[in-house]
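Lab meeting minutes (informal)
Scribe: AK
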Amino acid sequence: MDSLKAATGCKVWFYEEVFSVILTVDFTSSCILTLQRHWETCSTDLQPPGGSAGFDFSVMSYNILSQELLRDNGFLYGHCEPGVLRWDFRLHNLLQEIQQHDADVVCLQEVQEDHYQNQIRPALQARGYHCEYKKRTGRKPDGCAVTFKTSRLSLLSSNPVEFLRPGDALLDRDNVGLVLLLRPNDSVSQSDPSSFLCVANTHLLYNPRRGDIKLAQLAILLAEIDRLSRLPDGSTNPVVLCGDFNAAPWSPLYSFLTSGCLEYGGLQIGKVSGQDNSPRGQRLLSFPIWSPSLGINHQCQYENQPAAEAPPTIPTAVEGRISNLTGEDLSTPPDRMRMEHTLKLQSSYRHHLLPDGRPEISTCHSHTALTVDYILYSHDSTPPSLPGGRGLQLLGRLSLVGQSELEEVNGLPNQHHSSDHLPLLARFRFRC
């Protein structure tokens, strides 16, 4: 504590709060400045369209940096004062940030299980949130959480998604997702049993060189979202997909999410996420990327399964298919080396700053500064003046910053920002 006090010139004291005893810092003008973020309006239609109902709600997505992962990867945080890396200090900042933004739905990644059970969930419940959590499989310490204000939304179902498939050499990692169906607590939605929101949260594999695994994990998540959001008549309810996708905005993986199609013939595995700039030769994605035994087709939908029927929790163990291109692969028609989805997703962020076009940054530590976090949503292509359509309209977002702004505050984490990621925040209108 003395080293922190000496380094910052700030007064330090302890105080009691419901979740724990927290170390907090009173920052003076000599301390590192906070990042300047502002609200960006994305629509001039600030009132519900005439003759139709609208439910406005906000969503936060935030990788809060698991304390165990911070300790295991300490080399990434050598630029930080030791005091700002303490969990008691970080916890207070993180909860204060969540409270400040006051989002209706909060999707968190890298939520350490013991911290969730003992501190984070009780603190959020005290503020009116219902909390759902899915821990990563195996011995991993953290997982994903989705929380929402019970005053604004009601839970219809909570659906954990495990990407691990025992016996499959491709799907052998412990990443997970969580998909919730939520009903707005407004009179229109309550009177229409088919009106709900599908909110999904995930943290895909980090490894920059394993784009094949990332795409297979994503296919599983998208198949589950498609099943849960689809109505008996074939239409779908709105989807909000949040998470740390470990993929850059210029990557093929991101393009697949936002365009609905990826032609992957000749694509190197290490180029899928846009994280690996290594020029050396790499294996190409093979056809098919995942085993047919997974029961998911190239459109990222469950095969031969009615929308109302749940998929098996643990599919039959299968052998993954990861290899260099073989003679069989070379003879595969190019038009078959394609994966698709029908969710019509787009990003709530531009991924570049105005007016100079610099890249927006969502994560920064001593080894990287780029965007890997997204709030994606199924947009409403129907004009507000016309009836029909159940997509979402983006009303606004909390601005991100560039690399130079992060350098001015000594990167992440720092005294004011207690994760190596920045929270994303967007506001939507759901036309019921």
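Next up, CB showed the second protein from the same session:
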Amino acid sequence: MSREEKVVCVTGASGFIASWLVELLLARGYFVHATVRSLDDPKKTEHLLALEGAKERLSLFEANLLKEGSFEAAVNGCQCVFHTASPVLFSVSDPQVQLLDPALKGTLNVLNSAAKVSSIKRVILTSSIATILYGTKPLESGVMVDETWFSDPVICEQTKSWYSLAKTLAENAAVKFSEDKGFELVVINPGYVIGPVLQPTLNFTSEGIMSLIKHGKEVYTDGIYRLVDVRDVANAHILAFENPEANGRYIMIGNVVRSPEIMTIVNKLYPNFSHSERYEDGMCAELLPYNVSRVRAEGLGVEFTPIETSIKDTIESLKENNFMSF
């Protein structure tokens, strides 16, 4: 079957990563079934319908992670499902309702629907670096984190790392489901995703990087950022489908940096931005306690965007969308 005839499904299509995934799939000639929570919400649909090729090859479907069977119409006739839909929240009042149920039950709902469609041979799951870093292995100086690291649900729960717990439980359940049902599962584990936004609303990671740049407000208490460009993450999803040898997990992190390094780059790109003048090259001298392997991602064919390009494109996009001004 030629690429032009391929039909794929993207869940949670209005999100940051998923919107780029839809854009790149359409650019490659795919027919895309895209799910959103509400077809009546223009913030979920208009930016997708405006993409080049959308009129000819994009179909929107309404689906709810917690409603059993609601993805069946969307996955019908597809060769692959890209399951990106899952809440990204780091401050919650009810972890079970806000994170755990949508992540775990939602993943199983999507997989159950996919398992009923004989044409679907592979599912690409958008997971997270959060399913890797919170385990029994210590993040000691000089270690190289790779895909053999796994977060421990017990540790996640003890430390109240609810997002990590939700993503870990969902990934583990997806792996077991795929093994039981006999279809291929490839897992993408992105770090902190930055880059230009396509959706009209501000997503969590874009809001966080904007707060760091504008106000010096740290997202992480240790000031360490595991950055990756959203376009690279979306591309990795497609490579994971198109490459028949793709398997297992793929960490997607282009650079591990401290916040002063980010702000030093901002300072060079935008020297008139008053906040960034507090940051100088000397502040980046402290060694990082660990690094993250790019070997498997690069073996998949990913060519990581330079960090300077990602940061510049992030800021320009936030400015263009009136989320921030200099």
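CB comment: The two ends are 49 Å apart (CA to CA).
No objections, moving on.
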